[in-house]
Amino acid sequence: MKLIVLSCAIVAIASISFPSCYADVVVDFGTGNTFYNAPYTEDGLTLTPLPSSSAWTIGPWNSLPNDNSISTSTNGFTGLRVASNVGLIDLLSFDVRGVNAFQATWQATSSTGAVFTVPSGNTTNTISFPPTGWTGISYFDISVNAANSSLRMDNIRFTTTAVPEPSSVLFTILSGLVIIARQSVRSRRIAAAGQDARCSVRASQNLLAGWHTVPQHSRASSS
Asked: Beta-carbon neighbour count of residue 119 at 10 Å?
């Protein structure tokens, strides 16, 4: 019975979903007045221009000299792939400004195929992404194919799911189950030893009882 209870407990523990540890990361492209071209890697993301794309430049925004971002200005196709180097991620948001596209729109496309249209405008705008299509992605692209296009992107925010840490509760439960199992085995051994001892006592008693019931002349003749 105890073994059945133990088995059921192990199955129940295996079905428990322990919370994972999430890391919230923001890629802000640093500070300073240095301009350089993508590809660029920071905090687990690598940003690389798509094939046939115009160049993407990392540097300060003219009104914010100590706040770098990544930007492009083109008269044709331009695109950027933002890929994760830390496994699957959940994209939460990024900031855009100076978004322009003549008779076209900028679009963000996730590795799952979800598409999000980036609104145009010269003011800073935080684009927040819904969970559907933007959770558990390996990369996303942002692109446009139009004349007189420009975009500046900053503060890419995402979470990455870390390996779940072992729960102290799980260790406690498993330790208790091990103790129960050991006690069960010990109890069975003690019971078996007690049974053997009782059998030996009964055998001795039966032997003595049989000896006392032998007639006196039988004892004499045997001697």
From this structure: 10
Residue 190: its H or E element: helix 168-212
70 and 39 Cβ atoms separated by less than 8 Å = no
How far apart (Å, rounded) are the C-alpha atoms in residues 51 and 59?
22
Distance between CA 50 and CA 36 in Å, rounded? 17
Residue 15's nearest CA partner among 180, 181, 175, 173 is 173
- What is the distance between the alpha carbons of residues 140 and 132, in angstroms, rounded to a whole number? 14
Domain boundaries, the chain: 20-161, 167-213
**Which tokens is 79 given?**
């695109």
| CATH superfamily of domain region 20-161 | Galactose-binding domain-like (2.60.120.260)
User: Residue 108: which residues within 8 A CB-CB, separation 6 or more?
Assistant: 115, 116, 118, 127, 129, 140, 141, 142
Q: Write down the pTM of the prediction.
A: 0.63
Sheet with 139-145: strands ordered across = 40-42, 45-49, 77-84, 139-145, 106-110, 115-118
For residue 146 the two structure tokens come to: 């139009």
pLDDT in tens, 1-54: 555 555 555 555 555 554 556 688 999 998 777 778 889 999 999 999 999 888
Q: What is the C-alpha separation between 57 and 40, in angstroms, rounded?
A: 10
DSSP 104-133: S-EEEEETTS-EEEEPPBSS-EEEE--STT
